[in-house]
């Protein structure tokens, strides 16, 4: 696309997006919009484990994630500017924004990806899916954002049982080596960091809109991760030749566009409107999506225990979401 055509394309896209947004706001009730966004989030984040596993087999994890999140932040920032929006961050929130970006992106992503190098995607899904709702609810209650209720506790219990029925026997097959234990610990730490950062962003969105929150955390967290990878990560400069191969590039683009650009904004919007623990039930739905996709596209066998586990996880999500 030429330099002359590019601005015209952006203008046309912006006009189309505004028309679609106006029609959507008029015709679709807010509750239904949020439910649709939640469903999209579950589908996308239910299929990103495979993309991460494919990408980090070729590209150093820190560089792979740093480029992804930095590009996502820059793209969202450019989009906001094209809409005539001039973002503003109060000075009192600058330091907090940096800390949250480190928690959500820099630290959690690199620790998670290095952990994923040493364990199966199934085991990583068990740990992340089981721990995410518990951590989000625990941090939200500790910081006074939400009340801990028996209904939430019951939902988490049902969901965790469902996760282990679905993934447990397969994920824990075989004897765990020291590297696998370290990898699992990495996923635990990454999940806790991400959950704590997610709870921290809700009060910040009283002053910062969700889209601005998304591009700022993506750009700051991704940028710091990218710089750190180029300075300290073995093989990072070699990988900057970008001769990754088709599979790694497809995985990276999938993680970038639906996995980062769209899903991050949706996640922040839902955290603002629903609260972190309610949105965290995506961790009960996403693994079900992954199993269904595997069965349909890759012919993976689904057993009765799998069906029971998925049913329990969806029931847990329904308990929390139905208010």
Report on the architecture of this protein:
The chain starts with a helix and ends with a helix. The radius of gyration is 20 Å and the shape is globular. The longest helix has 29 residues, at 246-274. The chain has one domain (55-321). α5 runs antiparallel to α9 and α6 (121-142) packs antiparallel against α14. It has 323 residues and is mainly alpha-helical. The chain has helices at 5-27, 30-45, 48-56, 61-82, 94-116, 121-142, 150-166, 168-171, 178-204, 210-232, 236-239, 246-274, 276-279, 282-297, 304-321. It contains 15 helices and no strands. Mean pLDDT is 81; it is low at 1-7.
Q: How many β-strand runs?
A: 0
Shape: globular
The description of the largest β-sheet is: none
Overall number of structural domains: 1
Chain-wise SSE layout:
Blueprint: H1 5-27, H2 30-45, H3 48-56, H4 61-82, H5 94-116, H6 121-142, H7 150-166, H8 168-171, H9 178-204, H10 210-232, H11 236-239, H12 246-274, H13 276-279, H14 282-297, H15 304-321
Question: What descriptors fit this protein?
Answer:
disordered N terminus, 323 residues, 15 helices, globular, mainly alpha
Question: Would you summarize the structure shown here?
Answer:
By secondary structure, the protein is an all-alpha fold.
